Amino acid sequence: MSWWKNNARDLPWRKSPTPYEVLVSEVMLQQTQVSRVVSKYHEFLSEFPTLEHLASANTKHLLTVWSGLGYNRRAVWLKEAARQILEKGEFPQEVDELRKLKGIGPYTSRSILIFAFNKDVAAVDTNIRRIFIALGFAEEDATEKDLQNIADALLLSGKSSDWHNALMDYGSTVLTSASTGIEPTSKQPQFNGSTRQMRGKIVQLLTQSDSLSTEKIISQLSEDEIDSEDVKQVLKQLIQDNLIEQNDSKEFQIAQ
After folding, report:
1. pTM for this predicted structure
2. Is the dihedral of CA 49, 51, 56, 62 positive or negative?
3. I need a surface site. Which of 92, 170, 194, 250 has the fewest CB within 10 A?
């Protein structure tokens, strides 16, 4: 904590955030680097400053603003979570209640309680796991349950928000993967040429158009030598994720 007083990262979502702002930042930070989130955070809140604005957002506009963060379904899930909170009539303040929100898992539910309400709960991200291992509190093969038990025992009571920010900053800048040789438990698969890349390109094409046929989409992806059957499969997945839909002309468009 002494180290953190002089070395805390200046991140926009740490400045007296509302629960809504914490929700937005935590969903953005899922599988996305901090540097990329910083550049989008203010823009997103400018366009959708409240739960009400987000819950009623036009999906095409929402995805246009989200563009650059990847994993587009997070934006749609975030909109659905905002709608769920408004239906409930208050912002959830328990892990079990937060877990009921679309797209909110075990880690994010705890993080929201930590950073929005300073609740005495503990969470373990890849940085915190690495610190526990590097400083001898855990072995590299420690299970998620083991790590959670360690985090619960080490929690600085009454200062949960500062404690977790300090740990994350220390892991991000001092006890890094490069300096410790401790690898994360999982790595993101290669992006170039992946289904994820194709999904992102198709969503981007449709945010820039009213609607497109399968053939038109394939033609605009042709420089990547995309197999037409792969494109059709991805289109089905995007429909299942409520990101896109087919209109009466059987062309694809962003879901309404």
Report:
1. 0.87
2. positive
3. 250
pLDDT along the chain (256 residues), means of 10: 96 94 96 90 96 96 92 94 97 96 95 97 96 97 96 97 97 95 75 76 89 88 72 90 88 88
CA distance 212 to 210: 7
**2 in a structural domain:** no
Active-site residues: which are they? 26
**Degrees to nearest 5, angle at CA 44 with 42 and 50:** 100
CA-wise closest residue to 3 among 175, 184, 126, 182:
175
d(CA 5, CA 1): 6
Distance CA 3, CA 134 (A): 17
Contact by Cβ (8 Å): 97, 84: no
Beta bridge partners of 252: 212, 246
Domain span including residue 141: 120-188
CA 117/CA 159 separation, integer angstroms: 10
* Number of domains the chain contains: 3
